[in-house]
Amino acid sequence: MITNRAQITKSPWSTTIYRTTVSDIEKMILMVGREYLVWSSVA
């Protein structure tokens, strides 16, 4: 997925990997945050 995006946009590897990593981290934080809110409300 990262390789295809890099080939299509022809952007530097560092920029592409950085963007992908940041978006993945944001998704993980959102998911963990939601689960934390659910568990804290249950407890």
UniProtKB/TrEMBL annotation:
It comes from the Eukaryota. This is 7375_t:CDS:1. It comes from Ambispora leptoticha.
